[in-house]
TrEMBL record:
<keyword id="KW-1015">Disulfide bond</keyword>
<dbReference type="InterPro" id="IPR001759">
    <property type="entry name" value="PTX_dom"/>
</dbReference>
<feature type="domain" description="VWFA">
    <location>
        <begin position="236"/>
        <end position="408"/>
    </location>
</feature>
<dbReference type="Pfam" id="PF00092">
    <property type="entry name" value="VWA"/>
</dbReference>
<keyword id="KW-0732">Signal</keyword>
<dbReference type="InterPro" id="IPR051360">
    <property type="entry name" value="Neuronal_Pentraxin_Related"/>
</dbReference>
<dbReference type="InterPro" id="IPR036465">
    <property type="entry name" value="vWFA_dom_sf"/>
</dbReference>
<dbReference type="Pfam" id="PF00354">
    <property type="entry name" value="Pentaxin"/>
</dbReference>
<dbReference type="GO" id="GO:0046872">
    <property type="term" value="F:metal ion binding"/>
</dbReference>
<keyword id="KW-0106">Calcium</keyword>
<feature type="signal peptide">
    <location>
        <begin position="1"/>
        <end position="22"/>
    </location>
</feature>
<dbReference type="InterPro" id="IPR013320">
    <property type="entry name" value="ConA-like_dom_sf"/>
</dbReference>
<keyword id="KW-0325">Glycoprotein</keyword>
<feature type="domain" description="Pentraxin (PTX)">
    <location>
        <begin position="27"/>
        <end position="229"/>
    </location>
</feature>
<dbReference type="InterPro" id="IPR002035">
    <property type="entry name" value="VWF_A"/>
</dbReference>
<protein>
    <submittedName>
        <fullName>C-reactive protein 1.1-like isoform X1</fullName>
    </submittedName>
</protein>
<keyword id="KW-0479">Metal-binding</keyword>
Amino acid sequence: MPWNVLLLTAMALAAVQHRTEAAVLGESRKLIFPELRTVSNYARLDTALAQDLTSFTLCVQMRSDVPYSLINYYQMGIVSYAVPSNHNELLLFIEKGFNLYMYDYILMANPASPWDGEWHTVCTTWRSSDGAWQFYVDGALTASASGFLVGGRVRTGGMWILGQDQDNVGGGFAAHQAFSGEMSQVNLWDRVLSADEIGADCNHHGNVIDWDTTNIEIFGQVTTAEYRCRLPCTADIVLVLDVSSSISRDQFVLARDFMMSFVECAALRDQDIWIGVMQYTCEASTYIALGQYALGSVQLGPAIHYIMYQGGETRTGEAIRKMRSTSGWRDELEIPRAAVILTDGQTTDDYANEAEAARNAGVALYSVSVGFPALINNAALATITNDNGRVFAVNQPCDAADKIVADLCG
């Protein structure tokens, strides 16, 4: 048996031995498909259908940042099931959005953008009796209808391939249809799951394909890594940067570098966090709107880098007031909010009452000391947060990211 089969078999056995823990924590494994798309990169599931399927639910978690220009013209196979009489017996693939082939009939059902580099949970359901089908992305129903292949079935005797589109059983791959990205949690049931069951996307164990116990053989440059499935925490964080004369140009650069490192560290937590950036002197203005860039976007860091030093009077209270009222927070009340004030604590207005108003409005406040140590008003920074444990030095971006994400997401 090849070494990679032995490796994944051992991992599967470990998953069985720790089944309860894995179900609770969502711990499993993921496949990593390289950026260079070739016909040699794929994975094969060591499983077979025991009987024809007259209904099913297929779910997969994946992420890919292949440029839209490529997706616009090519496909990427995610899950392919081929039988001798039909190489598209069941095929989940990306072409502008998530789509499904059955019997060479296509459902171009969902225009979601799967190439954004974020993890997405995709589920599709179908039943033979009335041809009803559904597409879910990240727990939300995105498309549904009926009358598709009424009386049909997914037949036994086929092969399951991940990361390619089979044009014959076990082969016939094309490089322009190869998957690039990461994939995990491929599960298949012989029934249509309810919306609530689909929404619980970290407790999935299919009764036809169970990702945690199915042996997987990998080929080419596909690798494996540990993966922790979890429902992403949703939160909004606004970074509020003092660019006034109270801060020297050199200290301003350190504060800007803090923000760039902060977003990099926060992105490692794989959460649904929006980052906004404001800058202020005597007036405050939005520099990066919440949601303008996804956390982890390659564009976010460079955008922060281009913030310019301005000079002028310092009005931290006005900045906090404007942050609270005009930041573009997401409307859902349950989404936690936080703001990080980067300043030396020297200000000419009433920052204390504005900070209290922000906290009372549900915005958790944190501060970062910027400037020469002898000139920093540490008491003011503590007053802003009302908690000394929420005050950070300018050389602690990852400590701040860890603390804030933990506070917001638990």
